[in-house]
Amino acid sequence: ILGVVLAVMRLSKNPVTSWVAWLYIWFFRGTPVYVQLLLWFNLALIFPVLNIPFIYKDEMTDVMTPFMCALLGLALNEAAYMAEICRAGIQSVDEGQTEASHALGMTQGKTMRRVVLPQALRVIIPPTGNEFINMLKTSSLVY
Protein backbone atom coordinates (compact mmCIF):
# COMPACT_ATOMS: atom_id res chain seq x y z
CA ILE A 1 0.00 0.00 0.00
CA LEU A 2 2.83 2.39 0.85
CA GLY A 3 4.48 1.55 -2.46
CA VAL A 4 1.37 2.53 -4.44
CA VAL A 5 1.03 5.76 -2.44
CA LEU A 6 4.68 6.61 -3.08
CA ALA A 7 4.29 5.82 -6.78
CA VAL A 8 1.29 8.14 -7.08
CA MET A 9 3.17 10.81 -5.13
CA ARG A 10 6.16 10.43 -7.45
CA LEU A 11 3.93 10.85 -10.52
CA SER A 12 2.16 13.86 -9.00
CA LYS A 13 2.33 17.22 -10.73
CA ASN A 14 2.97 18.83 -7.34
CA PRO A 15 6.76 19.27 -7.13
CA VAL A 16 6.84 19.03 -3.32
CA THR A 17 5.09 15.65 -3.09
CA SER A 18 7.05 14.36 -6.07
CA TRP A 19 10.31 15.45 -4.45
CA VAL A 20 9.40 13.92 -1.06
CA ALA A 21 8.62 10.59 -2.73
CA TRP A 22 11.82 10.78 -4.79
CA LEU A 23 13.86 11.47 -1.63
CA TYR A 24 12.27 8.55 0.22
CA ILE A 25 12.89 6.17 -2.68
CA TRP A 26 16.43 7.46 -3.17
CA PHE A 27 17.32 6.99 0.51
CA PHE A 28 15.80 3.55 1.05
CA ARG A 29 17.00 2.11 -2.27
CA GLY A 30 20.42 3.72 -1.95
CA THR A 31 21.41 2.53 1.50
CA PRO A 32 22.09 -1.13 2.30
CA VAL A 33 19.33 -2.97 4.14
CA TYR A 34 21.78 -4.00 6.84
CA VAL A 35 22.59 -0.35 7.59
CA GLN A 36 18.88 0.46 7.75
CA LEU A 37 18.28 -2.43 10.16
CA LEU A 38 21.11 -1.23 12.40
CA LEU A 39 19.72 2.30 12.30
CA TRP A 40 16.26 1.14 13.41
CA PHE A 41 17.70 -1.16 16.06
CA ASN A 42 19.82 1.62 17.58
CA LEU A 43 17.07 4.23 17.37
CA ALA A 44 16.12 3.62 21.00
CA LEU A 45 19.67 4.54 22.01
CA ILE A 46 19.90 7.58 19.74
CA PHE A 47 16.69 9.37 20.83
CA PRO A 48 17.70 10.15 24.44
CA VAL A 49 21.04 11.54 23.23
CA LEU A 50 19.43 13.82 20.61
CA ASN A 51 17.07 15.31 23.21
CA ILE A 52 14.31 16.12 20.69
CA PRO A 53 11.29 17.71 22.42
CA PHE A 54 7.77 16.29 22.11
CA ILE A 55 8.96 12.79 21.22
CA TYR A 56 8.20 9.85 23.48
CA LYS A 57 11.66 8.74 24.62
CA ASP A 58 11.39 7.50 28.21
CA GLU A 59 10.52 3.89 27.41
CA MET A 60 11.76 3.77 23.82
CA THR A 61 13.38 0.37 24.36
CA ASP A 62 9.94 -1.05 25.17
CA VAL A 63 8.53 0.25 21.88
CA MET A 64 11.48 -0.59 19.62
CA THR A 65 11.71 -4.32 20.15
CA PRO A 66 13.95 -6.32 17.79
CA PHE A 67 10.85 -7.55 15.97
CA MET A 68 9.55 -4.00 15.49
CA CYS A 69 12.96 -2.83 14.25
CA ALA A 70 13.09 -5.67 11.73
CA LEU A 71 9.53 -5.00 10.62
CA LEU A 72 10.17 -1.28 10.10
CA GLY A 73 13.49 -1.80 8.35
CA LEU A 74 12.30 -4.46 5.93
CA ALA A 75 8.89 -2.90 5.24
CA LEU A 76 10.17 0.60 4.54
CA ASN A 77 12.91 -0.75 2.29
CA GLU A 78 10.48 -2.95 0.40
CA ALA A 79 8.05 -0.03 -0.02
CA ALA A 80 10.70 1.93 -1.89
CA TYR A 81 11.25 -0.90 -4.36
CA MET A 82 7.51 -1.50 -4.75
CA ALA A 83 7.01 2.22 -5.42
CA GLU A 84 9.27 2.00 -8.46
CA ILE A 85 7.49 -1.14 -9.68
CA CYS A 86 4.07 0.51 -9.27
CA ARG A 87 5.28 3.69 -10.94
CA ALA A 88 6.45 1.70 -13.96
CA GLY A 89 3.11 -0.10 -14.07
CA ILE A 90 1.12 3.12 -13.91
CA GLN A 91 3.25 4.70 -16.62
CA SER A 92 2.71 1.66 -18.85
CA VAL A 93 -1.02 2.44 -19.12
CA ASP A 94 -1.80 4.46 -22.23
CA GLU A 95 -2.52 8.13 -21.59
CA GLY A 96 -5.64 7.81 -23.76
CA GLN A 97 -7.25 5.61 -21.10
CA THR A 98 -6.94 8.40 -18.54
CA GLU A 99 -8.21 10.99 -21.00
CA ALA A 100 -11.21 8.80 -21.88
CA SER A 101 -12.13 8.32 -18.23
CA HIS A 102 -11.92 12.07 -17.62
CA ALA A 103 -14.14 12.60 -20.68
CA LEU A 104 -16.69 10.32 -19.02
CA GLY A 105 -16.63 12.54 -15.92
CA MET A 106 -14.52 10.40 -13.59
CA THR A 107 -12.42 12.14 -10.97
CA GLN A 108 -8.66 11.62 -10.76
CA GLY A 109 -9.02 9.19 -7.84
CA LYS A 110 -11.77 7.20 -9.50
CA THR A 111 -9.73 7.06 -12.71
CA MET A 112 -6.76 5.70 -10.82
CA ARG A 113 -8.82 3.06 -8.96
CA ARG A 114 -11.09 1.90 -11.77
CA VAL A 115 -9.10 2.41 -14.96
CA VAL A 116 -5.36 2.81 -14.44
CA LEU A 117 -4.51 0.45 -11.57
CA PRO A 118 -6.43 -2.58 -12.93
CA GLN A 119 -4.56 -2.26 -16.23
CA ALA A 120 -1.27 -1.55 -14.47
CA LEU A 121 -1.54 -4.79 -12.48
CA ARG A 122 -0.62 -6.69 -15.63
CA VAL A 123 2.81 -5.04 -15.46
CA ILE A 124 3.09 -4.87 -11.65
CA ILE A 125 2.44 -8.52 -10.72
CA PRO A 126 5.51 -10.28 -12.24
CA PRO A 127 8.16 -8.06 -10.58
CA THR A 128 6.18 -8.23 -7.33
CA GLY A 129 6.85 -11.97 -7.24
CA ASN A 130 10.55 -11.24 -7.69
CA GLU A 131 10.45 -8.74 -4.84
CA PHE A 132 8.70 -11.30 -2.63
CA ILE A 133 11.55 -13.75 -3.21
CA ASN A 134 14.08 -10.97 -2.63
CA MET A 135 12.38 -10.08 0.67
CA LEU A 136 12.56 -13.70 1.81
CA LYS A 137 16.29 -13.66 1.15
CA THR A 138 16.75 -10.25 2.77
CA SER A 139 14.93 -11.33 5.92
CA SER A 140 17.90 -13.58 6.71
CA LEU A 141 19.82 -10.41 7.66
CA VAL A 142 17.52 -9.97 10.64
CA TYR A 143 18.45 -13.26 12.22
> What is the H/E order?
HHHHHHHH
Q: Gyration radius, to the nearest Å?
A: 19 Å
What is the CATH homologous superfamily assignment? MetI-like
Binned, the helix content reads: over 70%
Task: Specify the number of helices.
Answer: 8
Tell me the number of strands: 0
Strand content bin: under 5%
Sequence stretches where pLDDT stays below 50 over 5 or more residues: none
Largest sheet: none
Helix/strand structural class? mainly alpha
CATH fold-level name? MetI-like fold
Which SSEs are present, and which pair or pack?
Layout: H1 2-10, H2 15-30, H3 33-41, H4 43-50, H5 60-63, H6 66-92, H7 95-103, H8 108-138
What does this structure look like?
The protein is mainly alpha-helical. It has one domain: MetI-like (MetI-like fold, Orthogonal Bundle), CATH 1.10.3720.10. 79% of the residues lie in helices and 0% in strands. The protein has eight helices and no strands. Helix 1 crosses helix 2. The two termini are 26 Å apart.
Short note summarizing the structure:
79% of the residues lie in helices and 0% in strands. The protein is mainly alpha-helical and 143 residues long.
What would the keywords be for this entry?
about 140 residues; single chain; MetI-like fold; mainly alpha; about 0% strand
